[in-house]
Amino acid sequence: MDINVRSIIYNGQQLEKVDYKSCRTFFYTSHPIYSARNWDILTQELTGQYNASASTRLLLDQGNYVNDGMSAKGTLSYYDYLWAHLSQRSFKILQFLLDYYRDGRGFNGLTIPPYILILANSSGFYKFLWKESGIANDRVYDNKIRNWNHIRNATLYDFFITSLLNKASNKNEYEAWQPLIDSWEEKVKHSQDDDVIKLWREWMQGELYEEELQRILSVVTTINENCEFNEKSGFFYFNLRGNLDEVAEFVRSIYDTREFLAARYFDVSFSYDASSDAMLSSGEEKLLYLMAEIYYSHIVRPKKFDNVDAPSLYVLDEAELGLHPEWQRAFVSYLLAFFNYFPLGDIQIVLTTHSPILLSDILRQDTVLLKKEDRETIVEKQHRETFATNIFELYRDSFFLEKGLMGLWAERKIKEIVEDIESGAHLDTLAKRISMIGDPQIKNYLTMKFAAIDRQQAISLLEEQIDQIRRGEIWN
Predict the structure, then answer these.
(1) Does the global pTM surpass 0.85?
(2) Are 268 and 115 in contact (CB under 8 A)?
(3) What is the residue extent of each domain of the chain?
(4) Are 275 and 115 in contact, with CB atoms under 8 Å apart?
């Protein structure tokens, strides 16, 4: 990031001019960057910024996927970019988890999933169901081509057939691969042998694209030999609490053959349980991905390239978006726990957010509040207490919610109830509408106001609240 201050006014004072400086920067935003272009991103990288935002990595990861930093040649499809991104994303998470579990200390309060599930990517099966794919799909492929004596063989077959199907990302590729796919199905269908790997080895001899088929064999064999297998769920998996050597070997295999990893051959998922397909929530996965990207820029990348240093400035733009409020509450704690776990000198962290939840962990003097006035962004002059402040108090602050603490539609409905009570309109529905109010104080106010025109229904509403208190359903 480049810093060149000339004439900037901050809190009414002109900032002192400083000489040109630069620092290694890590940048991440939850927002899509629609204007990202390869040459802009390359300029950022060359000037010291590592951009971990998903829309940016979607472009850059293609080069890493193909040849570790060298750009791919030719026209690339959307599938190529997406598969490359999924590949590098999973690879970075694997690197992070391997180092995390190897140390054995753990983050304070942060639970990291110990299971890595290696799953067949079934998107190829569904791709042939839709005419919109541009593929002349005259048939639908079936991954249940025969009844297997053991579920492990059925799963291995899934890896082989999905690898073939996922090789075809457009009509021309499908037409080239279709004879191979059909030939493999026929081989399996008419054989009584349950050794799927043996069947593949016999079948591929002399076939067109034999070198590519050998690569698929290498992938499936590596999975079969290195992973544990759950007979109940049909999942190949690693347990990071007990299989670190196997995981390390698996990661080395991925690094040696960059095309090895995700999507075209298999998917990687992270879970707390190897016996079911209950995966991480989207928020958990997002937080894990962010940690893995920080780890990559902080630890892996500086070791990999002699001329690259770890970032000293981390800029996170609304990184908490999509996280459960409880995860937002713990976000700063997790972030600081990471840098305490992997210390590499002094760093500075800049967070931007619309959520006051994060502010409870930030000192007042470290906070800059910005607001819009007359279409200009200005710095809020009033310094507010933030650190260790009750989150409700922060929400109640008019800086964050200028027009109240409830939904706008609910606020309108309450005003309508007041207007109907005062005008005597819609009396037949008033009691029901008042009973639906969640805030006890507002409900009591409306009930007392309603008692002036219908005492009996107001008494019924109060008796209903008394019953709720007896049942422990009202806390305020």
Answers:
(1) no
(2) no
(3) 21-111+283-355, 114-279, 360-405, 408-470
(4) no
